[in-house]
Every structure is written in structure tokens, then in C-alpha cells.
């Protein structure tokens, strides 16, 4: 049985590996939101940014991509993802069922936010999120670039996210 990874944020546009298949997929029980303070990749200790995470919410669902990993690359991909995603232990690695657009259900490696972690910041108003994203920069570049790339890729996949679309426009306006 192949290994699958669920992508909902930067994994959509920068997976860091070459998937053998990409299928639109839906994860029930979680919402995509800017609910994680970023002190490494898209912000700093002095000026934290915000990154997307899957926030567990009954009745919610997140649509993204299921990325299939080549059998001979499973170990290296998992090691890479753990180094990338578990840098501050704010994410929890879970194997969760995702429903593929073709009707199949597969178990996928999924990174969800630990709501008890100090970097969890769920529930911030969108306007506050926009101002944080507009000013933050981290080791991987400007927080705004992360937002714009993710929003654009979701739109390109036909999976536009209302909040991300609004945030992308608002951050552009703030930055002039």
C-alpha cells in the first residue's frame, strides 16, 4: 500500500519531493487556517509570522491534495517531512483518512496543529492576520509570499479558499 501525504498549504506548491500521483482530497474534521505563529520559516522570535495549519474542528473539512510517494522514497520523504514540519513541535504528525476525488479513501501522513502548543493562535480576526502576515519575514522569506503562493495554487487547482483570497488581497493593499 503506497504512502500518501496530505497537502493543504506550502506542500501544494513546494512538496520537496516528486509525487507519483496528485489527487484532490478532502480531510474531514479539520479546517485550514492561519493558526500557527511562525518563528522559523515565515517569521522570527522578534516578529512572528503566521503559517497555515489544520485546526481540529467538528463539522469542518479541508480540501487539498493527496500526494502519493514512490515506494522506494517513503523513508527519505518521511525523514524530510519530519525535519521540515516538526521543526518546533507545534505540528503533530498523524495518519488520517482522506477522501480522494475519485471516491477512494486513503490514509495520509498529515501535519495538524497542537492546540496546546505555545505557537497555536487560532481564532485571530482576519484583519489582524493580514497585518501580521504583511510585516513578517523568516528564514524561508516573506510571510506574504507564503500566503500569495498558497492562495494562487489553491485557485489554480480550482480549490479557492475564501479566507485566503481575502487575506491575499488585504495584504497586497497593506503593502501598497
Tell me about this structure.
- With 176 residues, this protein is α+β, with helices and mostly antiparallel strands.
- It has a single domain (3-175), classed as Hypothetical upf0131 protein ytfp (Roll), CATH 3.10.490.10.
- It is built from four helices and seven strands, in the order βββαββαββαα.
- It has helices at 74-85, 126-135, 143-156, 162-175, and strands spanning 3-7, 21-38, 49-69, 91-100, 105-113, 137-138, 141-142.
- The strands form two sheets. It has a five-stranded mixed β-barrel with strand order 1-3-2-4-5. Strands 6-7 form a two-stranded antiparallel sheet.
- α2 packs across α4 and α3 (143-156) crosses α4.
- The longest helix is centred in the C-terminal third of the chain and has 14 residues, at 143-156.
- 39% of the residues are buried.
- The mean pLDDT is 96.
Amino acid at each position: 500500500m503506497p504512502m500518501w501525504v496530505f497537502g493543504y498549504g506550502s506542500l501544494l506548491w513546494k512538496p520537496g519531493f516528486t509525487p507519483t500521483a496528485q489527487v484532490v482530497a478532502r480531510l474531514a474534521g479539520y479546517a485550514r487556517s492561519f493558526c500557527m505563529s511562525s518563528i522559523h520559516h515565515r517569521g522570527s522570535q522578534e516578529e512572528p509570522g503566521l503559517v497555515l495549519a489544520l485546526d481540529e474542528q467538528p463539522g469542518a473539512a479541508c480540501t487539498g491534495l493527496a500526494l502519493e510517494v514512490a515506494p522506494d522514497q517513503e523513508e527519505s520523504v518521511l525523514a524530510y517531512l519530519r525535519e521540515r514540519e516538526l521543526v518546533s513541535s507545534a505540528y503533530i504528525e498523524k495518519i488520517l483518512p482522506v477522501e480522494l476525488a475519485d471516491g477512494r479513501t486513503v490514509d495520509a501522513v498529515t501535519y495538524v496543529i497542537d492546540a496546546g502548543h505555545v505557537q497555536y493562535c487560532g481564532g485571530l480576526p482576519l484583519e489582524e492576520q493580514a497585518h501580521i502576515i504583511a510585516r513578517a519575514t523568516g528564514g524561508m522569506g516573506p510571510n506574504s509570499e507564503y500566503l500569495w503562493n498558497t492562495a494562487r495554487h489553491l485557485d489554480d487547482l480550482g480549490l479557492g479558499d475564501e479566507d485566503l483570497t481575502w487575506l491575499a488581497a488585504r495584504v497586497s493593499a497593506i503593502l501598497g
